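ok so for the tutorial part 2 we go from a plain amino acid sequence to predicted structure tokens. step 1 is just haveing the sequence, like this:
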Amino acid sequence: MSAPLTHRIRAAGLLVEDGRILLVKHVVGDDTYWIPPGGGFESQSDESTRDTVSREFREETGLDVAVGPLVYVREFAEPALGRFHMELFYRIDAWRGELSLANLNGLGGDEFEIRELGWVSREELAALPFYPAELLDDVWERVAAEEVVIRHLGLQR
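step 2 — the prediction. this is what the tokens look like for a chain of 157 residues:
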């Protein structure tokens, strides 16, 4: 019988404006990738995954956001590392502030991995190392929809 997996809940925000999506560039060793701003649920500060999105947006982008409906759910397992992840992606309905990485100072972890913020067009996104790639299929249409139907992106291993 295998050992139980530890569980991690990650919540991220999908902020699309003028045909561009706001993404965060991570550099981890030799690996570079772009992802929507977000991070792990922290039980000592977050009452909900929407709180996680708000906090992570402030930390990673400097923006204050209004978190809208849930758009995507993604699960992935890393049995070799003993981890199971649940990711939730919410639409961002409004935002204010100026983009900045300054709030990362002193936090460790992301402070050393996040290198850049960028507004990325659909055409540019297709050429970038972007995760999760499943969002490329329909993120633009789903975020623009008045009524969001949640899409489960499946379970990846």
